[in-house]
């Protein structure tokens, strides 16, 4: 039975070895409510449909990935045989609503078609723990492993070992270097990362009236997903707002470091009009730094990605964060599960699949939050939302 817990603020510490008591332990996704409508039904602007995998291949939209009637029949027959297919879900972390919903989407979809889930584990953003979790998962001899890697290079060998043991593999967000489709990996799922970044650039450019000076805050190390967002943001300004200058690009690794970087940028460039950070947690640190520096939401703008509660609240309050661009994490997990099931049946789906992003502003962020996060917005968020109706 899934554990019930509510996560209010996602503290995403990238590659930071801070050890929590539950690091590496088996986890269960959060329990959520069924949304009143799907993301496909939302009357909310979509992000640019731009997604390029690490090999330069364009993506296939997730709506084109589904089980055929024949595949469903095969899965049903196997489930009814008393010897169900088995799977393991190996997450990089589950300390945020977004990542928990990825796991839940995969889990519920697999169970819908009769799979037995042997384990759901997470690594607290530590590659060595994720490697050990995969090792343990391989020993369980499942038919399929969904993996969300922490590090592309450090985890190459352990992910190769999955295929060497006859187990099918699909990853979300990161594609371990060198793995060949369809022999070693049978699918890779992300959001429209480059498109989400592009849409952040479009909103920034529009709000600045096509002129100004901005900075980018990115990770201090290579990370496929966040790098794609930076490429998209930069591309949007170059193509649509050439009079907006990117005056600096600075790396960070932790939330605390993000605050220090933001303080430094605001002090160094008093003329700075906005910052694009690569997701919403460092964006909150930038907003706090801007407030302490005497800036206001009228003269300093942040656009970013993901849709957790604290970021959504800042948007609906018309604060410094003016837009969040995000894809549905549950659908990402569901899509990965479908790719895994097709692979188990010997009929692999596309090598690279993306899930469409949406652009959330103060007028629609609460609606989007409830649908995409599959839970009710807080009373404070709902009260603020009334102002923009």
Question: Can you describe this structure?
Answer:
- This protein has 389 residues and is of the alpha/beta class.
- It folds into 2 domains: 171 residues, Rossmann fold, CATH 3.40.50; 162 residues, Response regulator (Rossmann fold, 3-Layer(aba) Sandwich), CATH 3.40.50.
- Helices cover 39% and strands 18% of the residues.
- It has a 7-stranded parallel beta sheet with strand order 1-12-6-5-4-2-3, with helices on both faces.
- Strand 10, helix 9 and strand 11 form a beta-alpha-beta unit.
- Helix 2 runs parallel beside helix 10, helix 5 packs across helix 6 and helix 7 crosses helix 8.
- It is globular and about 65 Å long.
- The two termini are 39 Å apart.
- The N terminus is likely disordered.
Widest sheet, order of strands: 1-12-6-5-4-2-3
What is the count of structural domains? 2
Question: Poorly predicted ranges (pLDDT <50, ≥5 residues)?
Answer: 1-25
User: Main sheet?
Assistant: 7 strands, parallel
What helical percentage do the residues reach? 25-40%
User: CATH architecture of the largest domain, please?
Assistant: 3-Layer(aba) Sandwich
* Percent of sequence in beta strands: 15-25%
Q: Spell out the helices and strands N to C.
A: EHEHEHEHEEHEHEHEHEHEHEEHH
Determine the mean pLDDT.
89
- Structural category: alpha/beta
CATH superfamily of the largest domain: Response regulator
Separation of termini?
A: 39 Å
Q: How large is the count of helical segments?
A: 12
Number of strands: 13
Shape: globular
CATH topology name of the largest domain: Rossmann fold
Overall CATH class of the largest domain: Alpha Beta
Please give the radius of gyration in angstroms: 21 Å
